[in-house]
């Protein structure tokens, strides 16, 4: 089973985006479904977020 975690920046614990390494991204309100994201795409996404400030 995947170890899902919420962002430390999530102010509202009931409406968060969660991530799991090697699995993807899901909405905490709908945990049964998730979007698969590869490690390269995830690294690109994080890099873009960090660059945007």
TrEMBL record:
It holds the Pfam family DUF397. Residues 2-50 form the DUF397 domain. This is DUF397 domain-containing protein. It comes from Lentzea pudingi.
């Amino acid at each position: 089973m995947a170890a899902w975690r919420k962002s430390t920046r999530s102010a509202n614990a009931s409406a968060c985006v969660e991530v799991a390494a090697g699995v993807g991204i899901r909405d905490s309100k709908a945990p049964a479904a998730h979007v698969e994201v590869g490690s390269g795409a995830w690294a690109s996404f994080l890099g873009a977020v960090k660059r945007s400030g």
